[in-house]
Amino acid sequence: MNISIIGTGVYGLALANVARKNGNTIKMWTENPDVAKEYKDTGMLKSIYDIELKRISVSNDLEYVMEDADLIIIVTASKYVDITARNMKEYYKGTPICIASKGLEDTTGELLSEVVKKILNTRNIAVLSGPTFAKDLLTGQIGSLALASYCRKTKKIVMNALMGSQIKIRESSDIIGLQICGCVKNVYAIGSGILDGLGYSNSTQAFLITEAIHDMKDIIYYMGGSKKTVLSYAGIGDLILTCTSIKSRNYSFGKLLAEDKKKAQKYLMDTTVEGYHALNVVYQLLQRKRVHLPLIEMLYDIVYNEVDPEKLIELLLSSK
Question: Do 66 and 205 fall within a single domain?
Fold first, then answer.
């Protein structure tokens, strides 16, 4: 199968490598001409991750990358999905699309599946989410993902492309809940990192994670999804992973925020922290829907309004 991967971050490379191991041929698109030149000159992308790129080519020519594709996987940062889909529109011919980006559209709070569906006028869309760190996949660790789609044929194509000796995929019927989980777990990971930075233990983190599960059920419900999706790989699986490891950029940002705000701001400038953007989008969305979730509101105040991080502990111990 010919697979086009839109985005050359570490997670894009990880999915490319998994798909390559399953016998597929991969083309990857980068908007950065320096990355494309690095590949052309060296056959590698050491600036992103030091891995041999067998049956993987890299180009900043979007038309070339998309032509003859049997599957397109979008793995850009969530805030770029809208513009990326608009750039794809000229060359798009109805090919099945899998969205592996996690988040909501920055300005409207729309699901990424709805953004892509509207721009490309297609229902051949699947969404992939779950507890997988990109570097773990690149080093051969096994992992799990949840997959939902508007189209059964698209779901089958994605499973054939990615499922094998390294990845287990479980199907879901809840494309809404899957995306909400993939977005908000990054928000709670910031909170868990804050607790670590304040010196609190895994017991306190488990406290926050449990509260987060209840919140996630409510957010999914208000967005029109199924509360049961919280129990999926994309829900509790990804939440536990992201809220308990320094490998998570969201967790690392939260830890720095509690320890040294200047370092946290520098980290934010140098690193893509999806939870930082997701927190603002989710907060504004809940405000518009008049939904009161104290934990989200407290994290928003700490991150955006410079409220003392210790206030998070006061909230957890309150009766709210």
Answer: no
Contacts of 252 (CB under 8 A, 6+ apart): 193, 246, 267, 271
Q: Is the pLDDT of residue 115 over 80?
A: yes
The residue segments making up the domain with residue 281 are 179-317
Burial of 40-71, coded b for 16+ CB within 10 Å and e otherwise, reads eeeeebeebbebebeebebbbebeebbeebeb
Q: What is the mean pLDDT of residues 90-94?
A: 96
CB-based contacts of 186, cutoff 8 Å, min separation 6: 102, 103, 242, 250, 274, 275, 278
* pLDDT above 70 as % of the chain: 99
- 216-268 pLDDT, tens digit per residue, is 999 999 999 999 999 999 999 999 999 999 999 999 999 999 999 999 999 99
Tokens representing 76 are 């850009």
pTM, 2 dp:
0.93
Catalytic residue (one of 27, 155, 185, 217): 185
Please report, for the domain that includes residue 265, its CATH number.
1.10.1040.10
Q: Which residues contact 193 (CB under 8 A, 6 or more apart)?
A: 248, 250, 251, 252, 253, 254, 255, 256, 257, 258
**Residue 28 is encoded by which pair of tokens?**
């990857």
118 is catalytic: no
Q: Indicate the residue type of 306.
A: E
